[in-house]
Backbone:
């Protein structure tokens, strides 16, 4: 069988278009036609033709008062927005949640923030029998779940204030954090360590772990976590294993959503 190589798929004109877009994306904010030509080794006339075409279609824009200087255009932003609008985080997360449940023997859950509540939109059960089943699409107070803490902690201070001021901090158990100052301190700890916990704060006998999922802009858009019997969360060896698995799942899903910092 013939070995397939990159050169088998090369289309010179298309390659030049992509080279120019990538150069302006990663190398510099703007550049002249000559700078592009010199950097990429593409003839000046060819660069001029490609740049003029991209400019006419909105993929590049000419800098005001600089006739031969160009930067990326808004058309690229519109195209990228359509890509991310078509991403279905619940389905994208599913394969990683299955791995997470298999690694930890816990129920894995995916949550989003809605009207200052955490809402579970996806759930995967482990192979072993479980009696802990969280309701999907049901509002859960942000102070009583690890996912709720994560969804609040990784936002700006202003956004945190808006969420907490509009939220009702429920005292579901004696362990629930209902004082706002205490909850702010809890969010600081969550942000610092990169994950959140729930030690019988939602219900007696139940523990939770969750970590943030980021999108291509670096904004937190969801939380992935696990839920199970509290004994697993008070066992230091088991907890460390579960913590690493949750963080890894969050990173894998974030990458799928376009986050490149990991």
Residues:
């Amino acid at each position: 069988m013939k070995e397939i190589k990159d050169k088998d798929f090369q289309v010179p004109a298309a390659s030049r278009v992509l080279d120019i877009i990538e150069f302006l994306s990663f190398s510099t904010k703007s550049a002249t036609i000559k700078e592009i030509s010199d950097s990429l080794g593409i003839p000046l006339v060819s660069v001029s033709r490609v740049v003029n075409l991209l400019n006419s279609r909105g993929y590049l824009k000419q800098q005001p008062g600089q006739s031969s200087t160009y930067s990326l255009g808004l058309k690229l932003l519109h195209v990228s927005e359509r890509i991310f609008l078509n991403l279905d985080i619940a389905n994208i997360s599913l394969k990683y949640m299955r791995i997470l449940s298999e690694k930890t023997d816990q129920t894995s859950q995916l949550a989003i923030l809605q009207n200052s509540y955490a809402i579970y939109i996806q759930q995967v059960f482990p192979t072993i029998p479980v009696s802990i089943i969280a309701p999907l699409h049901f509002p859960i107070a942000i102070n009583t779940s690890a996912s709720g803490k994560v969804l609040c902690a990784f936002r700006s201070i202003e956004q945190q204030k808006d969420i907490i001021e509009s939220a009702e901090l429920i005292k579901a158990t004696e362990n629930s954090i209902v004082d706002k100052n205490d909850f702010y301190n809890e969010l600081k700890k969550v942000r610092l360590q990169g994950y959140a916990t729930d030690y019988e704060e939602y219900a007696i006998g139940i523990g939770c772990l969750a970590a943030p999922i980021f999108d291509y802009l670096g904004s937190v858009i969801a939380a992935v976590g696990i839920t199970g019997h509290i004994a697993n969360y008070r066992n230091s060896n088991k907890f460390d294993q579960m913590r690493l698995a949750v963080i890894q799942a969050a990173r894998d899903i974030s990458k799928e959503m376009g986050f490149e910092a990991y």
Observations:
- Strands lie at 30-32, 60-62, 69-72, 107-114, 117-124, 139-141, 196-199, 206-214, 220-229.
- Residues 236-256 form the longest helix (21 residues).
- The domain at 6-83 is CATH 1.10.10.10 (Arc Repressor Mutant, subunit A).
